[in-house]
Specification:
- The protein is an alpha/beta fold and 313 residues long.
- 25% of the residues lie in helices and 26% in strands.
- The chain is built from 10 helices and 18 strands.
- The strands form 4 sheets. The protein has a 7-stranded mixed sheet with strand order 6-5-4-3-2-1-18.
- The longest helix is centred in the N-terminal third of the chain and has 13 residues.
Amino acid sequence: MHLHFLGTSSGSPSQSRNVSATGVSFDKTKSWLLVDCGEATQHQLLKSTLSPYHLSVICISHLHGDHCYGLPGLLASMAMSGRVEPVCLIAPQAVIQFVMSTLALTQVTLPFDLNTMAIEQSDQSICVGFCHIEIIPLKHRVPSFGFKIKETLIPRKLRVKQLQLEGVASGAHYNLLQKGEDVIYKGRHLSAASYAFPSWRPRVVIICGDNEKPTLLSGYCGDIDMLVHEATFTHPDLMKVGTHTGHSDAKRVALFAQQHNIPALTLTHFSVRYHGEGMLDNVEHEARTHYQGTLRLADDFLVVTMPKKLLSE
């Protein structure tokens, strides 16, 4: 499971950072997921290892333009690339309306089904085949959401020794058990749950949209491996501009991650005032003062591989 930071600026782009977009790719499928799609995200993809042709799920956190203005153009380019497999768009209803209206006004016909799910009307838990997505309400100037993403395509290992000890000879039924299917062997029911287990514990990440209140995540963090959260300001700078921005500061997020024993924290969505060499030093110092886990400050094109926690019999 890999996180691809395609845009790490807030509000507007700069020479070194584009606006919000984060890709999530997986080990056992070419399909991948995109969280937010600011303007020029498709240009960022040209410089990454991710292929728009294999983009299967798009999650948009809220309707502000730095999180969704790039979506019509990306979909149009995917259409021209020859994609025919369906694409799932999970977004606020206003974003869906924006996308559909833009495509209609520019006379774009998609050769694939764009299956839309309005966050306000959908279940808060969605399975899309290669991952499970839980939607988390956040607090911003407009309704904003986070996405808890859990991988599901994990190879299973077979308890061969146990099967042999119980007199179950090898055969095609071994393969079925490993795939998770129960079988009948010589009149005996063999449960896949008893004889096969995942190779590693599912990796879980929360990727947030804009959010001024990290404590809203409290009920979702017990099993996560990483939190990706905006840190638009340092704490002193946020106090200067006022909390009306609807954003968080590095101190607030770091304290939350420390209090909830979150093993890894990646900060992103930095104000343009911090762009440039050495300009994020105060943000990093503030976060490290309050958080002792694995801390990253994302740059555009940073790729983070979430390590596997292998399971044994």
